[in-house]
Amino acid sequence: MFVYGTLMSGYSNHHFLATSKYLGRARTVSKYSLYTLHYPFVNSTIADAHIVGELYEIPSQEVLSPIDELEGHPFDYERKDIEVQLFADSSEHIVVRAQIYFNNNLSTGDGAEKLLSGNFHDSFTADRHREPNV
Questions:
Q1: Please, which residues have CB within 8 angstroms of residue 82's CB and are 6 or more apart in sequence?
Q2: Per CATH, which fold does 2-129 belong to?
Q3: Half-sphere exposure of residue 86, counting CA atoms within 13 Å on the CB side?
Q4: Quick one: which H or E segment has residue 65?
Q5: Domain coordinates of the chain in residue numbers?
Q6: Averages of pLDDT over each 10 residues, the chain, 134 residues
Q7: Which SS3 state, helix, strand or coil, does residue 17 take?
């Protein structure tokens, strides 16, 4: 699972991934658009930036189901397969298939902040979702 917002370490919903294996920092191979309103969302129909996030191995359906519920899958956010590139210490480019939650239903014109960096850490909204002492 590729996560780019409040499911990342240090944020309010990271506890959903407590039993998942962290595989590393990554970015999407294709470009999408990252926005924040009250929470972050990626629109798959607009290509602005490579989205930066974290990659996790989800151990079971029991772990995935609450995340799907949190994201409102498949009605609000839709979980889809994409390719992501792991950030490696070497010059080797490791590309893997992962799942991401897209939301093409939210209006980007209602004051949503567009993050051209593709990085949720750069948003004004991120601070509201940080865990205390992080």
A1: 2, 28, 29, 30, 97, 98, 99, 100
A2: Hypothetical upf0131 protein ytfp (3.10.490)
A3: 15
A4: helix 61-71
A5: 2-129
A6: 97 96 96 92 94 97 98 96 87 88 82 91 82 65
A7: helix
